Structures are given as structure tokens and as C-alpha cells.
From TrEMBL:
<feature type="domain" description="CBS">
    <location>
        <begin position="255"/>
        <end position="314"/>
    </location>
</feature>
<dbReference type="InterPro" id="IPR003593">
    <property type="entry name" value="AAA+_ATPase"/>
</dbReference>
<keyword id="KW-0813">Transport</keyword>
<keyword id="KW-1003">Cell membrane</keyword>
<keyword id="KW-0677">Repeat</keyword>
<dbReference type="InterPro" id="IPR046342">
    <property type="entry name" value="CBS_dom_sf"/>
</dbReference>
<comment type="subunit">
    <text>The complex is probably composed of two ATP-binding proteins, two transmembrane proteins and a solute-binding protein.</text>
</comment>
<dbReference type="GO" id="GO:0005524">
    <property type="term" value="F:ATP binding"/>
</dbReference>
<dbReference type="InterPro" id="IPR027417">
    <property type="entry name" value="P-loop_NTPase"/>
</dbReference>
<dbReference type="Pfam" id="PF00005">
    <property type="entry name" value="ABC_tran"/>
</dbReference>
<keyword id="KW-0547">Nucleotide-binding</keyword>
<dbReference type="InterPro" id="IPR017871">
    <property type="entry name" value="ABC_transporter-like_CS"/>
</dbReference>
<dbReference type="InterPro" id="IPR003439">
    <property type="entry name" value="ABC_transporter-like_ATP-bd"/>
</dbReference>
<dbReference type="InterPro" id="IPR000644">
    <property type="entry name" value="CBS_dom"/>
</dbReference>
<keyword id="KW-0129">CBS domain</keyword>
<dbReference type="InterPro" id="IPR005892">
    <property type="entry name" value="Gly-betaine_transp_ATP-bd"/>
</dbReference>
<keyword id="KW-0067">ATP-binding</keyword>
């Protein structure tokens, strides 16, 4: 869906992005991580042509982006940023309707779309539609920013630290919402963050950048287990690596399937991560948990030995 082929960006003599190649498949959530100044935002902004690349080619659906009309890019790509970029003198509703208005949708259609998006992001019309950005909390403003990015139903979403300023609880709930939204609407998303836990929670495809270059990319577990160099390894947090891996693996992967009646024990959902299961074990002083499905029906058992990946169960 999105292809960057040997793309370079220079600002004067400085090279911000240095010969990167990257393909993002349709429906994939690709996360760019790396330290400050490594070229993440520049990469994102070259995709929607807020910044023109200096060398190489960028394709959308196999077509060079330079061939697309501005209006087409605007319709196909939503863009959300940390500072939200909301217009301070416009109401929430007007801010969300920005792109549809630029695309000259009829007023009734814009209104319907704004209502639909506010519902989707859990913002009540009565409470928020007529508020101004300064009357919103940071999390509400970021939701409005995301709603605005989705307004013209783009198939590509570019998100530059959209949850950066949020407390961990609001942030996690927005991360969950984004994953759900992506599963439901099949958007192709390029998401920039420098928070490794956020990257691991979200990414199907993880790209590590350093000093303008891509040092490694692939499936998150692959990078975690086989980091290409010391820099990638350090991003995965040394001693915390085991927990970061456990956060990526579901309970269902290590549980013993149900074979007999289980005694009453602490329960854990089969979709929960091994990290969550470990936390329950630590907190409850329990070495075994009953694994249940979405309806709360027992489907198996997870022992501490199985959780840590031992082959045999006692
Ligand atoms: N318009 C510009 N003119 C000159 N240099 C720029 C411009 N925009 C970015 N740069 C430089 O390009 C490099 C990459 O910047 P970029 O904003 O892409 O980094 P980043 O990875 O997004 O960092 P952060 O995590 O801090 O947001 C930096 O060294 C920056 O100073
Ligand atoms: Mg940036």
C-alpha cells in the first residue's frame, strides 16, 4: 500500500532521512520508533507530502505520490499529531469537519459524519460539539484530533505521537481503541512514537530508526528476540526484555488445554498476555490459574512452569 524506495531527505547540508526503504501492507499497523531527531516525523510527513523528499521514490498503491493531486492525498490520508493542531477559534464539530469541508461535501453529510465520529470516539455531541479546544482536557483534544484525521474516511492514517501527552491510563485506553478501530475498519496506519511499550502494544510491523537510517524492521517479537545491534537491544530495555516479551504473548499460547474438572482458582482470560498472567500470580501468590474464554467458561490451565516456557508441567 505504501512503499518508500531508497528515500532520502536533506535540509540544506544536513541529512534528516538517509536512504530508507520500507513497505507497509494494506491493513497493517506500522510503528516507527527511535530516539529524538532520528527522522520519524520527517518520514511521516514525506508520505503526505507536507515535506517533499529529496531522493528516491514514494508510492501509494504502486503510484508515485508526486502524481497524485493534493485533494486525493488529503482524502486518502488522515494525519494526527501530538499537539493535535486543532484550530483554537473553531468548535470541536467544526474542527472535525475540516477535511470534508475542504472536499466540499454537502453540509448535511458533514454533520452526519461528525456525529458518527464523535460517537465512535466516545465524545458526546451534547457535551462536546460546541466546545472550543481550550475547554477540553488533553485526552479529549487528542480524541478530537484522531476524529478529524478519520473524517474523510481515509484508507491511510498517519499518526505522529498522537497520544504523547496523555496519562498512562487514558493512553492505554486510546491504544486499545486504535487497535479495535483498525481491526474493524482495516485502515493502513503508520504510527510514530518513542515509547517502546506503546510500540510493542500496537505494532504489526516495527521499524527502528537511528540517525536517519532504518537499523531494523520486522515483526515485534523477531526484533525483541534477535536485535540487529546493541542499539535495538537497548531500546528493548535490557533486564525488562522478558516482561516485554511476555506482554506480546497470549495466555492461550502456553496454557494446558482443559482435560479434566478444574478446582476453583484465580482466573485469567485466554486473550490476556503472559505478563498479565504473571502479575496475577505474583499478586495472588498463585502458581496456577484457570484460563477462561470470552464467556468466562474454563478452557485450560496455566501453571507458572508453563508460563515461563518449560516443556513439561511439573
Ligand atoms: N524543516 C526543517 N529544517 C531543517 N532541519 C529539519 C527540519 N525538520 C527536521 N529537521 C531535522 O531533521 C532531523 C529529523 O527530525 P524529525 O523531526 O524527523 O525527528 P523525529 O525522529 O521526529 O524526532 P522527535 O522524536 O524529537 O520528534 C532532526 O535533526 C531535525 O533537526
Ligand atoms: Mg517527531
Amino acid at each position: 500500500m505504501i512503499d518508500l524506495i531508497h528515500v532520502t531527505k536533506r535540509f540544506g547540508v544536513a541529512t534528516a532521512v538517509d536512504d530508507i526503504s520500507l513497505s507497509v501492507a494494506q491493513g497493517e499497523l506500522c510503528v516507527l520508533v527511535g530516539t529524538s531527531g532520528c527522522g520519524k516525523s520527517t518520514t511521516l510527513r514525506m508520505i503526505n507530502r507536507l515535506i517533499e523528499h529529496s531522493e528516491g521514490e514514494i508510492h501509494i498503491d504502486g503510484q508515485q505520490i508526486r502524481r497524485f493531486r493534493q485533494e486525493t492525498l488529503r482524502r486518502r490520508m488522515g494525519y494526527a499529531i501530538q499537539s493535535t493542531g486543532l484550530f483554537p477559534h473553531w468548535t470541536v464539530a467544526r474542527n472535525i469537519g475540516l477535511v470534508p469541508r475542504l472536499l466540499k461535501w454537502p453540509a448535511a453529510r458533514i454533520q452526519a459524519r461528525v456525529e458518527e465520529l464523535m460517537a465512535l470516539l466516545g465524545l458526546s455531541m451534547e457535551e462536546f460539539a460546541h466546545k472550543y479546544p481550550h475547554q477540553l482536557s488533553g485526552g479529549q483534544a487528542q480524541r478530537v484530533g484522531v476524529a478529524r484525521a478519520l473524517a474523510a474516511d481515509p484508507d491511510i492514517l498517519l499518526m505522529d505521537e498522537p497520544f504523547g501527552a496523555l496519562d498512562p491510563i487514558t493512553r492505554e485506553s486510546l491504544q486499545d481503541e486504535l487497535r479495535e478501530l483498525q481491526a474493524r475498519l482495516h485502515k493502513t496506519i503508520v504510527f510514530v512514537t518513542h515509547d517502546m511499550d506503546e510500540a510493542l502494544r500496537l505494532a504489526d510491523h516495527l521499524v527502528v530508526m537511528h540517525q536517519g537510517r532504518i537499523v531494523q524492521q520486522g515483526w515485534p517479537l523477531e526484533l525483541l528476540r534477535e536485535p540487529a545491534d546493541g542499539f535495538v537491544e537497548s531500546l528493548f530495555g535490557g533486564e525488562d526484555r522478558g516482561l516485554k516479551e511476555a506482554a506480546l504473548l497470549p495466555v492461550s499460547q502456553r496454557m494446558q488445554p482443559l482435560g479434566h474438572d478444574l478446582p476453583a482458582r484465580e482466573r485469567i482470560g485466554q486473550q490476556a498476555s503472559l505478563r498479565e498472567a504473571l502479575s496475577v500470580m505474583l499478586w495472588r501468590h498463585a502458581e496456577r490459574l484457570t484460563v477462561v474464554d470470552d464467556d468466562g467458561q474454563p478452557v485450560g490451565e496455566l501453571s507458572l512452569r508453563r508460563l515461563v516456557g518449560a516443556r513439561r508441567d511439573d
